[in-house]
Structure formats: C-alpha cells, structure tokens
Amino acid sequence: MSVTHRLVFLATTFCSLACAPRSVVVGAPVAPPAITTGTELLEAMHARYAGRYLSTLSFVQNNTLYQASGGQQKTQWLEHLAVPGRLRIDYLPLTGHSGVIYEGGKVHVFDNGKQIQSQPGINALLLLGFDINAQPPAATTRTLASLGFDLEVIHEAQWQGRRVHVVGAAAVGDSTTNQFWVDADRLLFVRMFQRNPAGTVVTEYRFDRYTDIGGFPVAIEVLMLRNGRAFFKEEYTDVRVDIPLADGLFDPARWVTAQPKIAAPPSPDDGPTDIAIEPASSNR
C-alpha cells in the first residue's frame, strides 16, 4: 500500500470513528437473526454448508450390537454415500452379496445377491446429517414434516456442553416426541428422537465425534438407544470424501455387478479392521 493510500485509509477510518454515534461500536459483529422455527433452522444449516460440502463419502463401519443379556455382537459394513439421497450398504464379507440401497425415496434390501424387499423408505439420519447441505431446504422441510416432526416447535437446550436448537419438542426434558437437535454454533445435526407408529418404542440417535475429514465435518461415531438403552453403535474407519462413485453403485438392478471392492476382507474373528476402499469402476 502506497503512502498516499495509507493516509487516505487512515483519514477515512478516523472520520468513521469520530462521526459515529457513541452508542455504536465500530467493527462489532452483527448478530445473526434469531432462529424461531425449524424451517428457519434448516435454511440456516443449508446456507452454512451449501456449495462447500462433500459430495460423496465412503467408509468401513464397525458395528457393535448390545444384547439385552449383556453380550455384544460385532459386524462390519462397507458404505458409500452420494448426496443427496443415495446410500449403499454392503454387509461384509462381500461374498455374501447382502445389504441395502437407499435411493429415490425407496429402500431396497438384498440377501445373497437377490432383492428380497423394495418399499418406500426415508433414512432420516442421511437426510439431516448429509442431504440438508446438498438439496433445497424446502425439500428437507417437506420430508421431515412427512416423518412427523413439528417444525413450528423449537427451543434451546444444552447438549455435551454446547448450546443446541431442539426442533419438535416444546418442553425441556421431553424425550418421547419426534425431535432433532442441531448444534447452534456449528449448525451440525447431533441428536434425534423418533417414536414408532404404535408409540411403544422411542429410538434415540446421537451423531458424535465430529472430525475434520478432507476439510469437511463428519461424525465418525453414531450411537443408537431404544427406550433409553444403548443397543447399536457405529464407528467409521478408512473414511474417504469426494472419491468418484459410479451411478451404477446405487442401481438396484446392478446390486451384484456394481459391487464395490475392498483390498482385504477381514475375518469376522479378527474384530474391527481398517480397510482400504478401492474406488468403484465406472458403471454409468
């Protein structure tokens, strides 16, 4: 910056300071508008990350099923996600050709290479954890409303030492109404409660251990509780972002032929193991 430019800059700054009313603090950050509805919160989440978020996510998921008897059962899944709305889960070992595909608002279930079920289905965790950043907020709003979340009801609470927005529950301590929780500062989904249609089971989901993966915040641990008891935990390893994923990977008609590959399938007796994921070949 030249001397002349510096003098002009200083003079302009001095004038701004001298002429400003004493009640105004120059340079103070402007507080964002208060969030008063779930719809406004979804819009704020989308605005924060839209265009600056991952497009694909691949990882090995190490599962722990907590049995009522006190025992534990360990399994592994290979998962590929493409936002918005597409998720492929392959149960390991891959030789079993079993798993699930979410796409187009449907869920397709496969066993031993054969499709055994296909029906409408929405993965709310996929929606709030990922799709919110890659699709118009209005689409997310419609889907959540269809799942029984009241977007007009919102309050603030504390979760794990941080301030959160709670959408769907009017009272602090309500753990039976359909609701989702969002970190108020980071605008990241952290918790959800869903009640089954009969009202007999409430499932709680916790998105934990947000970690920077390739410059993107990713929760690498998900804990699920049923009626207050932990029953399933997911831990993500070998997490990859934005690797190319062929469209065929999410095509139910290509469940077997488009199956992804891994470098070395683990033995079920070896416990959780990091696995190198190989990008899928093109099946467009």
Number of domains: 1
What do the pLDDT scores average to?
A: 86
Described by the principal axes of the CA atoms, the overall outline is globular
Distance between the termini: 53 Å
CATH superfamily: Lipoprotein localisation LolA/LolB/LppX
Which key terms come to mind for this protein?
284 residues, alpha+beta, outer membrane lipoprotein receptor (LolB), chain A, two-stranded antiparallel ribbon, 4 helices, 16% helix, 39% strand, disordered N terminus, disordered C terminus
Description of the molecule:
A 13-stranded antiparallel β-sheet has the order 6-5-4-3-2-1-13-12-11-10-9-8-7. Strands 14-15 form a two-stranded antiparallel ribbon. The chain is of the alpha+beta class and 284 residues long. It has helices spanning 3-19, 38-49, 124-129, 137-146, and strands at 56-66, 72-82, 86-91, 99-103, 106-111, 114-120, 154-159, 162-167, 179-183, 189-195, 202-213, 216-226, 229-241, 261-262, 277-278. The protein has one domain: Clam (outer membrane lipoprotein receptor (LolB), chain A). 16% of the residues lie in helices and 39% in strands. Helix 2 packs across helix 4. The protein has four helices and 15 strands.
